[in-house]
Write a structure and sequence with these properties.
Oligomer: single chain
Radius of gyration: 16 Å
Shape: globular
Number of helices: 4
């Protein structure tokens, strides 16, 4: 499998607007074609940053999914013109799975589920935060991703959601980032 970790830096002050637009308009369009595993806003480290994770069986599936999305009229002429002017930078890494977990396996099995728009009154974010540790592999990680393409320093370890994501801080050789999952994020 190929795991695609995408990171977008947004204009200061635009993160909430971008994520609301995604949850309300873009999500049904993108998940019609791309296999979503996770979507987060960074709470520590560089701000105005979002991360998302997509998982494909192989390169051929990735190519087919992305081509189908590029033919989605409402994505190309609706979401993209509204959302992408808010994006300053994009970074993409492709990775293999070094180690998973039952939570990760469940998300992978359900990755092709299409999401609808955010129901009225639904919060944008999930209540508990997760964590991301680079260059270290904590034993309780939800997933350990080993990048093989794209500029990334060492492995990416996604930590489980918890009411106190700072309980993981300390004792790691790599950088720790608190991630706030969006309410629709499987991981």
């Amino acid at each position: 499998m190929i795991h695609e970790w995408r990171t977008y830096q947004l204009k200061p002050g635009a993160t909430g607007e971008y994520l609301a637009l995604l949850a309300d308009l873009g999500l049904p369009l993108v998940t019609r074609h791309l296999p979503l595993l996770g979507y987060w806003q960074a709470e520590t480290g560089p701000l105005n940053v979002i991360h998302h994770l997509w998982t494909y069986a192989d390169w051929a599936e990735r190519e087919a999914c992305r081509a189908a999305l590029s033919n989605e009229e409402a994505w190309v002429n609706g979401f993209i013109p509204q959302a992408f002017p808010m994006v300053l930078q994009q970074h993409n890494s492709l990775a293999t799975l070094g180690r998973g977990s039952p939570v990760f396996d469940t998300a992978v099995a359900d990755r092709h589920r299409q999401h609808g728009p955010r129901p009225a009154g639904t919060p944008l974010f999930a209540p508990d935060c997760a964590g991301l540790v680079t260059a270290h592999a904590p034993p309780d990680a939800v997933a350990l991703l080993e990048p093989f393409s794209g500029l990334t320093e060492g492995p990416l370890a996604l930590l489980p959601r918890h009411a106190d994501p700072l309980r993981f801080v300390g004792g790691y050789e790599g950088q720790h980032t608190v991630l706030r999952p969006l309410s629709f994020s499987p991981l």
